[in-house]
Amino acid sequence: GLFYFAGHGVQIKGENYLITTDTNFSDEISVKHTSFALNQLIEVMDDCSNSTNLIILDACRNNPFVRAWNRGPELTGLASVYTPKGTIIAFATSPGEVAADGPNRNGSYT
Protein backbone atom coordinates (compact mmCIF):
# COMPACT_ATOMS: atom_id res chain seq x y z
CA GLY A 1 0.00 0.00 0.00
CA LEU A 2 1.17 3.53 -0.70
CA PHE A 3 0.05 6.81 0.89
CA TYR A 4 1.65 10.11 -0.12
CA PHE A 5 0.93 13.40 1.62
CA ALA A 6 2.41 16.81 0.80
CA GLY A 7 1.13 19.44 3.14
CA HIS A 8 1.23 20.45 6.75
CA GLY A 9 1.45 18.34 9.87
CA VAL A 10 1.25 19.26 13.56
CA GLN A 11 1.87 17.54 16.86
CA ILE A 12 -0.68 18.00 19.61
CA LYS A 13 0.09 16.39 22.96
CA GLY A 14 2.32 13.73 21.42
CA GLU A 15 -0.08 12.83 18.58
CA ASN A 16 0.49 13.74 14.93
CA TYR A 17 -2.18 15.21 12.66
CA LEU A 18 -2.20 15.85 8.92
CA ILE A 19 -3.84 19.17 8.17
CA THR A 20 -6.75 19.13 5.73
CA THR A 21 -8.10 21.98 3.63
CA ASP A 22 -11.00 22.45 6.05
CA THR A 23 -9.10 22.12 9.35
CA ASN A 24 -10.47 24.47 12.01
CA PHE A 25 -7.55 26.22 13.76
CA SER A 26 -9.52 27.96 16.52
CA ASP A 27 -8.01 25.67 19.21
CA GLU A 28 -6.28 22.31 19.68
CA ILE A 29 -9.52 20.38 20.10
CA SER A 30 -10.87 21.76 16.83
CA VAL A 31 -7.68 20.80 14.99
CA LYS A 32 -7.80 17.27 16.43
CA HIS A 33 -11.36 16.77 15.24
CA THR A 34 -11.08 18.42 11.80
CA SER A 35 -7.73 17.04 10.64
CA PHE A 36 -6.55 13.48 10.00
CA ALA A 37 -4.73 11.59 12.76
CA LEU A 38 -1.57 9.87 11.51
CA ASN A 39 -2.15 6.96 13.91
CA GLN A 40 -5.56 6.39 12.31
CA LEU A 41 -3.95 6.24 8.87
CA ILE A 42 -1.36 3.73 10.10
CA GLU A 43 -4.09 1.60 11.66
CA VAL A 44 -6.23 1.60 8.50
CA MET A 45 -3.27 0.62 6.32
CA ASP A 46 -2.21 -2.08 8.79
CA ASP A 47 -5.69 -3.61 8.61
CA CYS A 48 -5.35 -4.06 4.84
CA SER A 49 -3.97 -7.28 3.41
CA ASN A 50 -0.78 -5.60 2.15
CA SER A 51 2.49 -7.19 3.14
CA THR A 52 4.20 -3.79 2.94
CA ASN A 53 2.85 -0.29 3.47
CA LEU A 54 4.78 2.84 2.56
CA ILE A 55 3.71 6.21 3.93
CA ILE A 56 5.50 9.24 2.49
CA LEU A 57 4.97 12.45 4.46
CA ASP A 58 6.26 15.68 2.99
CA ALA A 59 5.00 17.72 5.91
CA CYS A 60 6.90 20.70 7.27
CA ARG A 61 6.02 19.44 10.76
CA ASN A 62 5.75 22.69 12.63
CA ASN A 63 2.84 23.93 14.70
CA PRO A 64 2.29 27.63 13.94
CA PHE A 65 -0.20 27.84 16.80
CA VAL A 66 2.08 26.68 19.63
CA ARG A 67 2.27 30.15 21.13
CA ALA A 68 -1.44 30.84 20.68
CA TRP A 69 -2.26 27.53 22.39
CA ASN A 70 0.15 28.29 25.27
CA ARG A 71 2.57 25.50 24.45
CA GLY A 72 6.32 25.70 24.77
CA PRO A 73 8.83 25.73 21.91
CA GLU A 74 9.86 22.16 22.80
CA LEU A 75 6.83 20.88 20.87
CA THR A 76 8.13 21.72 17.40
CA GLY A 77 8.03 19.03 14.76
CA LEU A 78 6.05 15.82 14.78
CA ALA A 79 6.33 13.19 17.49
CA SER A 80 8.05 9.86 16.97
CA VAL A 81 5.76 7.24 15.50
CA TYR A 82 5.43 3.52 16.19
CA THR A 83 4.87 1.52 13.01
CA PRO A 84 3.70 -2.07 12.82
CA LYS A 85 5.71 -4.74 11.02
CA GLY A 86 5.75 -4.10 7.27
CA THR A 87 5.07 -0.35 7.52
CA ILE A 88 7.67 2.21 6.52
CA ILE A 89 7.21 5.95 7.00
CA ALA A 90 9.41 8.33 5.03
CA PHE A 91 9.45 11.77 6.66
CA ALA A 92 10.78 15.02 5.22
CA THR A 93 12.77 15.48 8.45
CA SER A 94 13.55 13.85 11.81
CA PRO A 95 11.09 13.72 14.74
CA GLY A 96 11.08 16.98 16.66
CA GLU A 97 12.57 18.87 13.70
CA VAL A 98 10.94 21.04 11.07
CA ALA A 99 11.46 20.73 7.32
CA ALA A 100 12.00 23.64 4.98
CA ASP A 101 8.94 24.73 3.05
CA GLY A 102 11.12 25.68 0.09
CA PRO A 103 11.06 28.90 -1.92
CA ASN A 104 8.36 27.79 -4.36
CA ARG A 105 5.06 25.90 -4.23
CA ASN A 106 6.58 22.62 -2.97
CA GLY A 107 9.09 21.89 -0.24
CA SER A 108 12.63 20.68 -0.82
CA TYR A 109 11.65 17.07 -0.05
CA THR A 110 9.11 16.96 -2.89
Walk me through what this model shows.
This protein is an alpha/beta fold. 15% of the residues lie in helices and 25% in strands. It has 2 helices and 6 strands; from the N terminus they run βββαβαββ. The chain has helices spanning 28-34, 38-46, and strands spanning 2-7, 9-12, 15-18, 36-37, 53-59, 87-91. The strands form 2 sheets. It has a 3-stranded parallel beta sheet, covered by helices on one side. Strand 2 (9-12) and strand 3 form a beta hairpin.
Number of strands: 6
Summarize the amount of helix as a percent range: 10-25%
The end-to-end distance, rounded to whole angstroms, is 19 Å
**Secondary-structure element series:** EEEHEHEE
Strand order of the largest sheet: 1-5-6
Overall residue-averaged pLDDT value = 81
SSE layout and pairing:
Elements: E1 2-7, E2 9-12, E3 15-18, H1 28-34, E4 36-37, H2 38-46, E5 53-59, E6 87-91
Parallel strand pairs: 1-5, 5-6
Antiparallel strand pairs: 2-3, 3-4
